[in-house]
Amino acid sequence: MNGRIYLDYNATALIRPEARHAVIEAMQAGNPSSVHYEGRQARAQMDTARRDIAGFCNATPEGLIFTSGGTEACNMAAKLSAAPAGTIGRLLVSAIEHVAVSKAAAAQGLPVEILPVTANGVVDMAALEVALQDPTPALACVMLANNETGVVQPIADISEKLRAHGSLLFVDAVQAAGKMAIDVQALGCDALSLSGHKLGAPMGVGALWVRDGLVSPAHVLGGGQELGRRAGSENMLGIVAFAAAAKASAAALSAFAEMAQWRDEMENQLRAAFPAVAVFGAEAPRLANTSCFSLPGLSSEMLVMALDLAGISVSAGSACSSGKVSRSHVLDAMGVSDDLSTGVIRASFGWASRAEDGATLVETWCRLAQRQSEQVSQPHEVAE
Length: 384
Known about the structure:
Blueprint: E1 5-6, H1 17-26, H2 37-56, E2 64-67, H3 70-77, E3 82-83, E4 86-87, E5 90-94, H4 99-106, E6 112-115, H5 125-131, E7 138-141, H6 155-165, E8 168-172, H7 184-187, E9 191-195, E10 206-210, H8 236-251, H9 253-257, H10 259-273, E11 278-279, E12 290-294, H11 300-309, E13 312-313, H12 329-333, H13 338-341, E14 345-348, H14 355-377
Helix pairs in contact: 1-8, 2-8, 3-4, 10-14
C-alpha cells in the first residue's frame, strides 16, 4: 500500500494472496462446459469451488448459483415467487437495505412495504409482526449486517416469524461474509447473497444460494450454465479466487473478531478528544471491523478528501457509483439528525489492517475535525 492506511474494507477488501494465487493457477483452465480434458479439468475446479463456498455458509452446493457479484445475486433473489403459503404477493424490505435490494424489490411490480428500524439500526420486530398480520404471502428482504454501521440483524428471530407466516426470507450477507460466521441453516433463511470482492477476491464474482425446493427463475437466458438458472460462460478465474478467499476468511474468523478491540479503542479515543462524537449502532451487535461515527457540523466530503491526502482511505458510508458523498438513507432510517449525518466517516478494518491504524486515523481525524470546527465557528467577514 506504499505506506498508506486502508480502512475501507466494507467497500472492497484488498486482494488476498490466496485469491491471487488461485487466479494464476486457473489461468490455463478450459471452458467448464466443454467435454474434452481441459473442459473436464475446469469443471472439476468449479465444482470444488462451489462446494467450498457452500461449505463457507453451511449451504447445499446444489443451491448455489454463481453470479457477477452481490448486486446480481440480490436482483435474482427479488424474483423468488413461490412461498409455502402461496404465490408471493408483496415484498417486505427493511429501511436500511442496500440499493441493490431496494431497487430490485421495487422493480418486481408488487407492493413494497418498508420495515422500519430502531435508533440503533435494528429491524423493528413489532413493526414486522404488524406487517405479518396481513396473510398475503411475502418475500422479506433483510440484510445480515449493514454496510454502513456494521449493525447485525436478528435474522434467526425474523426467519422464525416468516416461516410461521408461510413467507420467504432473503438475506443479503454480502457485508457480513468473512467478518462473522454464516450458517444458512441456523439463520433459517430461504436465500442468501454473497460477493467475492468483500472477502478478498477480485471484483466481478458473487453467488446466490437458494434453499432446496425453491425455484429460482432464470435470470440470464442462453446456454444451460448453472442448471439453466444463469446462462453464460462462468467466470472461472473469479470463481476459484472467490473460493480461495472464502476459505482464507473462514480460517481467520477468530483473528477478525479481535478487531472489535481495535475499533472500541479507536472510538474511545475519539470520544475522549471530542465528547460530542456520535457512534452509530454502538448499542447494537456490530461487525467487529466497522465503525461509523460523526461530529456535528462537519463535512464528510471534505474529511474523506483530507484523510485521503493524508494517506488514509475511509469512506462516508456506502460506496457510490458516482463517487460523490450523498445523504445516507441508513442514518435517515435511524433518525439521525442532519447536523450529524453530514459529517459521517466509516472506518472498516480488514485482513491486512494493523491495530495502530485506528490510532493513526484518530490522530489525523481529530486534527482535521478541529480545523473544520474552527472554520465553521469563525464569523464571516462582510465586504463593505
